[in-house]
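TL;DR need structure tokens for one chain.
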Amino acid sequence: MVSNFNRTVKILRLIDNQIVDAVLTTVTDKHLSDATTLWEPLLQGTGEEDEYWEWKRKSRRAKILPGDELYAIECEGVTQGLIMIDILKKRCQIESQYRCRLVYISALATAPWNRPEINDHPTYKGVGGNLVDFAIARSNELGYQGRIGLHSLPRALGFYRKLKVGLLDWGPDSEDPDNLVYFEILRRNS
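>> reply
TL;DR here they are.
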């Protein structure tokens, strides 16, 4: 993981339609605490596919497994989004003949108050897109030419399909235990 990483990103505050600064940073105990104390109670009973995700457990896993990294987007002192990426263990499925490395998005979530499915008046827009953009940038930093891959939860399919980053929908992955739809970005210039 890139230690002490901080990057300013722009997100849209929906109440006044203003672009505001947020910080994309390596995950700290504060971000994990926000996920536990602020996110989890709001997710309970929603039926959201990440309702039972435990980001503290994901963080412990990332400390044990080489190549797993966690990052957060924070705005106004509160965690607005989290991402877990794998930078070592996954290879391209689409360009498999070349065995190219990619950054694999293992988990991505935005705070419940930013989701129109949960909240009629979401607080921020652009958190998830910024996290995907970061995965692409991390791929470029690692020399993977912007390649990323992910398996989408069913309710997130629309989000990934409408992103303007070049994610290609390869349909259900028969080798995935849940037959989730696989997305991948092929080699691209930074």
